[in-house]
Design a protein that fits this description.
Length: 1163
């Protein structure tokens, strides 16, 4: 890919109770993918939209037709000039409207412009990663036995409502592969009973707590597995949050790729620790709900998110890389187009970036009805289509299913592509241990997504008569997960303002403080309160409303807000409202509680006197949003603005002015899907405290009470920026509410500059910056130490060779009989089967493959393993910093590390700062702890559009700043431009006297080294028979060769190869140059020949990506999962008069070069 020629730089070569929608809206589409014009192979009648076409408005209305005709003839009979003129005008208008209708209809049939997303074919095969090798080996054995119909079954959904889960494929019965059950969503088990409604992703992000991220994912997976689910459709890291009013931002973890990536990866690890497959979604750039799908908004095509290459890599694809590195089983491609190619058919995205560059080993599934072509999406890298229906909801007409069988038989979809699709799915099943029938019995889920009744049918989407069976067993899987839900909700609550008011007491105020307060009020107003401490609770958001499940898919804003709406929502088992928790916890003997649970309270005679007497007012307000298939009030998925909803701002202003006659203290509590504007009231003098509780889930009130009463010290931090106006976020922060074309175009012209990056670049003062959050105590930072671990090099090591070989199968096209519908199967109408009624006329022919299909691009140097080039994940810098609690109470602190790139003369533009580390540490008063941040090469790099690789800046120092938010960075350190790593670097060449008794002349060389801990060394099997055997095989190549190893051991077991020779070593060196060393395990053999006193060094090196050299050692070594290091040193050695190397001299020189930590090198 060439350098982007413009600032926009698009990716281009040149410059019943249930909703009938899952991750989706009720729509239909007829578009083929823009990577491939496959419309000639689609049934045009089936492709027509189910909603009225754009020409419908121009169809004649037959109502009153006779009266219209009568009137017309009567008018003509009168021959009125006026009427004739009117009729002429009507005729002209009719012609114009008709012509316009034809134009609109024709435009609706046009494909989007092609050319902005380059082709990338063929799909890279799965199975190259060592961590998946065993699973692929097992999958290969199973897939090799499958028939064509079974393979198609595994890749194709059975149709909407054709199973008990929201998504099901079909089994491969004869080989023992079960039907997979797929279920939403990111915060709980959608449509299920007796489950936990966890806090939303945005609340999890606000905790900044890796352990809670993992724990929530793990608990979520336990419930999924016990409900009979194989695949969870979460977590969500797309949308990223480019637009603060985006409807589904709340499903993700925050508006920063690093935060999203860490939270997503920890969630994936938690989910998959229980054997449930996680699905990271939505890939990629699905940043708004408006126009996300064809016809959902009346347009024939979905919006195109037009993104430049660097922005795509550094922002929107970044968190997906973390998930892939974490081993995620599935990636869901999104509804929208990216650079005018549908994401689920975009070969550059799926084949080039996801499967090649990121080394994704699992399977790609479509979002529900996000597939727009059959052959095109298969070639572009889609592996599973969901729900199976292709162009319309629940119509049973699939773009795959029988059509995929046909495409394989006629050769348009290569059999090896289908085999890879199936193998990826089956390998993921093995990878998660789902072949264990004790954990995953081969049964249907124990709940139905489509009815609350105990009995129902297994395929309710089919009108075919079916037997009634038990579909809801009402299994309670909640266990003690409410504890995790409550902890996440509490730690995800952000204290935005506190002027000495919080925490409050359950008794209100002590007698002494209460008297003092009342004295102050009396002097100011002449009025004195007596009796109990008087507290008022205001706002609909404080109360239960009509119950948490009053609206389908939570698609309305009433009562207290616990989550957003759409496929990411669940059926609440309960929702503890704030007022319920506060009623229980205030001491009734000391506190008089008044409740005004609506947003337009009447402060009349009685109400007014009550409010006038209040001494503390707690006001609740909120802002809701959700998926685009549901609209509530003026919220069509995306919020129309950043205001509080249901008159929330006016409520706060009114309460603040009325509470205690304006003297009462006010606490504002906000539940919201994202940033809201607070300018109307934030600086009001008696608004003493503000809590931003995000979306807290079922434990809402309990978690809030913990914060208010000081049981938990608030430790949440904003995962986004709260600006003063929507305009503060820039043009890129605004939702496209009105289409700007038949194919809406959204150019991400702001590039890297979203959220705090935009505010920093343009020096805009936010109201509350990204990462902001107060505590009931105070913290300070001290003693920052930056420790380079590796030498800075511009580009990472070369891409390694595959650690494993992908499975291979016969490429012979199967017998047509395998695809014919078996007569013994009873058909269900609308159920998607893999079979054809007959195979007459199917012949292998030439297929019009897309441009570039036969021109395979070079493999990305950024790839090579799961997560990308392994060198990207090596630690290059360690930053240590001390944090001290210098306040009065214990609390958790969130140290945040931000990186500033070196200032260089290059034209490359960098953000002012980027988040590259965070942790959460609990400290008692006066306690100090050292926090350690490990920064990888990836963290220090930017995407170079010329090199098409991650590049480090080698000129100038990197700056690392640590603090409590993106704008509260109290301590900084730098990494020098010529920084030495903690492992000694090359200082001298290695020279040895030619008179030495070695058959070859030694020459210095430098190779990557492996630094291993003692524990990793135990795991590595470095002394195993396999390694020794491999050493012998290398040595036997040329027995006369003597190999020299200079060994360095610092702080334990660190070994390093720095020299090679000719002969056998030269051959090895050539192999290393050809493949690049990724891992090197070194075993030193030290011998002292008594006669010659000659020191003999021998070594064993395992090249992890070089199967030819050390194939036998691979399994035992890779179990250690050890990261590599780039660092070397060498020394100058001389021989004695006899040409021998003196042992003491060798050790002396090595110790001198290695420093005090040198351990003698006697491995």
């Amino acid at each position: 890919m060439a350098r982007d020629e413009s600032a926009q730089g698009l990716l281009k070569e040149s410059s019943t109770r249930r909703s009938h929608s899952s991750d989706r809206g009720d729509n239909a589409a007829f578009d083929s993918d823009s990577d491939l014009d496959a419309t000639d192979y689609i049934d045009r009648e089936a492709a027509r939209p189910t909603r009225r076409s754009p020409t419908a408005s121009f169809e004649p209305n037959t109502k009153g037709k006779r009266r219209w005709c009568s009137c017309l003839f009567t008018t003509l009979g009168r021959r009125s000039r006026c009427c004739i003129g009117v009729l002429a005008g009507i005729g002209i208008l009719w012609v114009l409207l008709t012509a316009t209708g034809v134009f609109v209809y024709k435009k609706a049939q046009e494909e989007p412009p092609y050319g902005q997303s380059p082709p990338w074919y063929p799909t890279p095969k799965g199975g190259i990663a060592a961590s998946w090798a065993d699973s692929y080996a097992k999958a290969s054995k199973m897939v090799s036995k499958m028939t064509l119909a079974e393979k198609v079954n595994v890749t194709t959904g059975t149709g909407w409502e054709m199973g008990l889960a929201v998504g099901t494929n079909a089994p491969a019965i004869y080989v023992g592969f079960p039907q997979l059950q797929l279920q939403d969503g990111p915060l709980g088990i959608r449509f299920a009973d007796n489950i936990t409604a966890f806090p939303a992703g945005i609340t999890v992000g606000a905790t900044w707590n890796r352990q809670l991220m993992y724990a929530r994912g793990k608990a979520h997976a336990i419930e999924a597995r016990e409900k009979g689910i194989n695949v969870l459709l979460g977590p969500c890291v797309g949308p990223l949050g480019r637009m603060p009013a985006g409807g589904r931002n709340w499903e993700g973890f925050g508006a920063d790729p690093y935060l999203q990536g860490i939270a997503g990866a920890e969630t994936v690890k938690g989910i998959q620790s229980e054997g449930v497959m996680a699905t990271i979604k939505h890939f990629v750039a699905n940043e708004q709900e408006h126009f996300r799908q064809p016809w959902e908004w009346g347009l024939p095509h979905a919006i195109s998110s037009n993104i430049d290459d660097r922005t795509l890599h550094e922002l929107y694809a970044w968190p997906f890389g973390d998930a892939v590195k974490a081993g995620v089983a599935s990636v869901m491609c999104s509804y929208n187009q990216v650079n005018n190619s549908y994401a689920c058919g975009n070969s550059k995205l799926l084949n080039g970036i996801l499967k090649d560059e990121l080394g994704f080993q699992g399977f790609v599934m479509s979002d529900w009805l996000a597939q727009h072509s059959g052959v095109g999406t298969a070639l572009a890298g889609l592996d599973m289509t969901m729900p199976g229906d292709g162009l319309g909801w629940a119509d049973g007409k699939s773009l795959w299913g029988p059509e995929l069988s046909r495409a394989v038989l006629n050769g348009s979809v290569p059999l090896e592509r289908l085999d890879d699709m199936v193998t990826r799915i089956v390998a993921a099943w093995y990878q998660l241990g789902q072949d264990d029938e004790k954990k995953f019995p081969r049964k249907q889920p124990n709940f139905s997504s489509w009815t609350d009744e105990e009995k129902g049918v297994l395929a309710p989407g089919s009108p075919t008569e079916q037997e009634q069976v038990v579909v809801n067993q009402f299994v309670n899987v909640q266990a003690n997960h409410s504890v995790i839900a409550r902890e996440v909700a509490a730690e995800g609550t952000v204290l935005l303002k506190n002027e000495g008011l919080l925490p409050i007491s359950r008794q209100g105020l002590s007698d002494e403080r209460l008297r003092a307060r009342r004295d102050v009020v009396e002097r100011a107003t002449g009025k004195r309160n007596e009796g109990k401490f008087k507290v008022g609770i205001f706002g609909e958001d404080a109360g239960p409303g009509n119950g948490p499940n009053a609206c389908k898919d939570r698609g309305c804003n009433q009562g207290t807000l616990g989550s957003g709406w759409g496929s990411g929502a669940v059926e609440f088992p309960y929702l503890v409202s704030p007022v319920e928790a506060l009623r229980k916890q205030f001491d009734k003997s000391k506190v008089e509680l008044s409740e005004f649970l609506d947003n337009k309270p009447s402060f009349g005679k009685d109400g007014g006197s009550v409010v006038d007497d209040l001494e503390l007012c707690i006001v609740f307000a909120n802002a809701d949003a959700g998926e685009g298939f549901t609209k509530w009030a003026d919220v069509s998925g995306d919020r129309p603005n950043l205001r509080l909803q249901n008159n929330g701002d006016d409520l706060i202003v009114k309460v603040a002015s009325s509470c205690g006659g304006g003297t009462g203290d006010v606490i504002v509590v906000i539940h919201a899907v994202g940033p809201v504007l607070v300018e109307d009231w934030i600086d009001t003098p008696n608004v003493k405290a503000v809590l931003f509780a995000n979306l807290p889930g079922q434990e809402s009130g309990n978690a809030l009470a913990e914060i208010l009463f000081g049981d938990t010290n608030p430790s949440g931090h904003l995962p986004f920026t709260i600006g003063r106006t929507l305009e503060d976020y820039g043009a890129g922060g605004k939702v496209l509410y009105l289409p700007n074309g038949v194919v809406p175009q959204q150019d991400f012209k702001e590039g890297l500059y979203i959220d705090y990056r935009h505010f920093d670049k343009y020096n805009i003062e936010p109201r509350f910056e990204f990462g902001f959050g107060l505590s009931y105590t105070t913290f300070k930072f001290d003693n920052i130490v930056v420790i380079p671990q590796r030498r800075k090099t511009r580009l990472p090591l070369r891409r390694p060779n595959p650690a494993a070989e992908p499975p291979s199968y016969s490429t012979d096209i199967p017998d047509k009989a395998e695809a014919v519908f078996p007569p013994e199967i009873r058909r269900l109408e609308k159920y998607v089967y893999p079979y054809l009624d007959n195979t007459d006329g199917i012949e292998v022919g030439r297929y019009p493959y897309p441009d570039g299909y036969d021109q395979q691009p070079p493999l990305s140097e950024a790839g090579g393993d799961e997560g990308g080039n392994p060198d990207l994940w090596a630690n290059y810098v360690v930053v240590n910093v001390d944090v001290i609690n210098d306040g009065p109470v214990g609390g958790a602190v969130v140290p945040q590390l931000y990186l500033q790139y070196p200032e260089t003369e290059s034209e490359t533009d960098f953000p002012v700062r980027v988040l590259r580390g965070f942790d959460k540490v609990y400290l008692k008063p006066g306690e100090k702890k050292t926090v350690k941040f490990n920064l990888t090469r990836r963290d220090l790099s930017y995407w170079d559009v010329v090199e098409q690789n991650w590049a480090m800046v080698t000129e100038g120092p990197y700056k690392f700043s640590v603090g409590l938010s993106s704008r509260d960075l109290s301590i900084s350190g730098t990494c020098p431009s010529t920084a030495r790593s903690t492992v000694p670097q090359p200082v001298q060449s290695l020279s040895i006297n030619p008179a030495l008794r070695f058959p070859t002349l030694w020459a210095a060389t430098q190779l990557p080294t492996q630094v291993i801990t003692e524990e990793e060394n135990k795991m590595s099997g470095a002394n195993s028979p396999e390694v020794l055997a491999a050493y012998d095989s290398i040595r036997s190549d040329k027995e006369e060769q003597n190999w020299l190893l200079l060994s360095y051991g610092a702080t334990g077991n660190k070994l390093q190869l720095t020299a090679t020779g000719t002969g056998g070593l030269s051959e090895l060196k050539a192999q290393l140059d050809d493949t690049q060393v990724q891992y090197a395990y070194v075993r030193v053999e030290y011998a002292n020949d008594a006669e010659s006193k000659r020191v003999k060094f021998a070594f064993v090196v395992w090249i992890g990506e070089n199967a030819k050299v050390m194939r036998k050692a691979r399994a035992s070594i890779e179990a250690g999962d050890v990261k590599k290091v780039l660092s070397h040193y060498s020394v100058e050695l001389t021989a004695n008069d006899k040409g021998d190397l003196d042992e003491d001299e060798v050790v002396k020189r090595l110790r001198k070069a290695g420093g005090a930590d040198y351990n003698g090198g006697r491995g």
